[in-house]
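Next comes the chain:
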Amino acid sequence: MTRLFTAFPLPDPVADHLADHLPKLPAGVKSIDRDTWHITVVFHGDDDLDARLAALAEIDMTLPAPRLRLRGSGTFPGVGWIGVQADGALPALVAAAGRSPEDYIPHMTIARWPKDQQVQLGLDDYTGPEWTPSELVLFTSERGPVYTPIGQVRLLHAEQPRPTC
C-alpha cells in the first residue's frame, strides 16, 4: 500500500503571482514550500498503487479541463489555505477521479501552525490569474511534504478538438 493523492499541479505563472502577494507570516507559522503547491482533487490515503494508476488511466479523456483561479483565503485549525474558484467543468472531473463533488471544497494549503494558534493570512481579497490545468496527476506522499508524481492524464482544453470515434 502506498499513500496517494490526485491533484492539479500549479503552473509557474500562477505560483509566481501568489508568491508575489504572500505577506510575511507571523512567528510559529510554517509556510508550505512553493515547489509542492498543488490543488488536491482526491486524497486516496494508503491505497493499491497499480489499481489507482489503472483508475487514473480510465478517466474519460473527453472531459473538459476546468478553468481555475486562486481566490480568497481561509483557515482550518492549524492550516491556512487559498481558495479555488472553478467553472462548471470541475465537478465531473472530481467525480471521475473518485470523489463526490458535493463534499469537495477546492483549496490549496499554503501554511501550517499549531492548532491552538489563531492566524489571519491577510489574503481574503487575493485574486490570482485564471488558468486551465493541462493534466491531473497521481502523486505518492511520504509522511511530510515529499510528493512524487507517478502518473498523469492529459486534460482536454476547450480550444483542442474533441476526439472522434
Notes: Helices lie at 12-21, 49-57, 90-96. The beta strands are 2-9, 30-31, 38-47, 68-76, 79-86, 107-112, 127-131, 135-142, 146-154. The radius of gyration is 16 Å. The longest strand covers residues 38-47.
